[in-house]
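Discussion board: Methods & Data

I've been asked by a reviewer to show the raw model output for two of the constructs in my manuscript, not just the figures. I'm not sure how much to include, so I'm pasting the format here to get opinions. Each protein appears as its amino acid sequence followed by a line of discrete structure tokens. Is this the kind of thing reviewers expect to see in a supplement, or should I convert it first? Here is construct A:
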Amino acid sequence: MLRLFSLAKSRPKNTGETARRRRRGSRSRKATATVEMAVLVPVLLTFTLGTLDLCSLQFLRESAVLAAYEGSRQGVARNRTNEDVVDRVRQFLDERNISYDANTLCDFGNRSFTNGQTLEPITLAVNIPAAPNLLVPSSLVGDLTITANVTMVKEWANQD
């Protein structure tokens, strides 16, 4: 009868050389794991922080849209001015702990809420700089500004 494999396991004799080989193999496995860890941890950390920054950019984009909507909603009512709109946008962004440049935050274009007529469409643009709002300031972002535009119709003209 031909045996293809043996059920009984043959053990090598436990000599001093075999024990040394076993210890040496254990050390090389530990060294391999250390090198793998040293290579993979920075890569995984980079991917994790990159993902968090992408999520932060998405949060900024949505916050800019909502701030523009809130500001426009404030401005379309009777006797509301551009200052009321800017105050509402600032309040909204402060509630979300978003950094912004007060000088370039709101842009009203040609028409404004202060002198808008009844049923006149008025566009509000909200500008938020990305760099101060990210976890890892990056040269890739540079001077990226998140901008959101909302157009609403003035419900009532302001009365003097």
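Construct B, same format:
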Amino acid sequence: MTNAEKLHGCKPDLVRKVTAVIEDLKGHGYNLRVVEGMRSEAQAAANWAKGRKQLASGEWVIVNPKAVVTKRRRSRHCDGEAADLVAVDKGGRPIWDDKSPVWKLIGRSAKAHGLDGGYQWGWDLGHVELPEGGKTA
């Protein structure tokens, strides 16, 4: 799937800003791939459950912190307000190394284009989203 196809259904402001980040990174010699844009409620629920167990009381507890992939029960991906990005090397392989300088470049570009994301939180580095409350630059 192309980046545009993976962003299908996302809010136009997000698509515009993510596209600008992708173009910025090309100027630094990196190709970015959209890993995921829109996410179904079912996928969000499955992601939430990773690394967690529901007790008989209904409470969820983390049983495997390394397997947890999200801290939010309902993802902003479900509203078309978030996307996950990764840089790919010349062979087309994703660069997941969190020590790679590309993550800081993604963060700087995302911030310059009015996006919040993992660069602010120190985890989920490729995640970008429209600011809460709809305030966009």
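Answer (T.O., handling editor elsewhere):
This is acceptable in a supplement if you add a one-line summary per construct. For B, something like: The longest helix spans residues 12-26.
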